[in-house]
Design a protein that fits this description.
There is one protein chain. With 153 residues, the chain is mainly β. The chain is built from two helices and ten strands. The strands form three sheets. A four-stranded antiparallel sheet has the order 3-4-5-6, with no helix packed on it. The protein has a four-stranded antiparallel sheet with strand order 7-8-9-10, with no helix packed on it. A hairpin with a 2-residue loop joins strand 4 and strand 5. The protein starts with a helix and ends in a 10-residue tail after the last strand. The mean pLDDT is 91.
């Protein structure tokens, strides 16, 4: 890897959680008590977290994962112990030949659909989330445009 790429991807990205209401953020003029994700990996970082599920015991998030030595993002599902903020499980949801990030999602008719950024592909695809196998399946092209961090409203 050339020096420029090493510098570009040597930065650290962390996933943090704050259990504060929007009102408290405004009143306190900021966020306090951030709980940072604890994980054993030193060779990668996680970015663009989208919270899928929160229970008393765990938090499940979809994130971009990027290996520092191979800077091409792919999507993973992280299962985190809510009390210790420690990574319990990690599942690769989708890994393509092009960079993936920003795993935004929506629910429709009882199913969850993820539409990640994949601008290098020249289109915006939407995938069905297979919760049992922890995979994104059945891609559907919703727009033939190279978009960055698109959000459906």
């Amino acid at each position: 890897m050339n020096l420029l790429r090493q510098i570009q991807y040597s930065q650290n990205w962390y996933v943090g959680f704050c259990f504060t209401s929007a009102d408290d953020v405004i009143i306190n003029k900021g966020v306090k008590d951030v709980k940072w994700l604890n994980h054993p990996y030193k060779d990668r970082w996680f970015a663009d977290p989208f919270i899928y599920s929160v229970t008393e015991k765990e938090i499940i998030v979809f994130v971009e994962e990027l290996l520092i030595e191979k800077p091409k993002g792919y999507l993973v599902e992280l299962v985190i112990n809510k009390q210790t903020m420690t990574l319990v499980n990690r599942y690769v949801l989708l890994d393509l030949s092009t960079h993936l990030s920003y795993p935004a999602f929506f629910r429709y008719e009882g199913k969850l659909y993820v539409y990640p950024e994949n601008g290098a592909s020249g289109k915006l695809n939407c995938y069905e989330y297979d919760e049992f196998n922890h995979k994104l399946i059945n891609p559907i092209c919703i727009l033939h445009e190279a978009l960055a961090d698109s959000t459906i409203l």
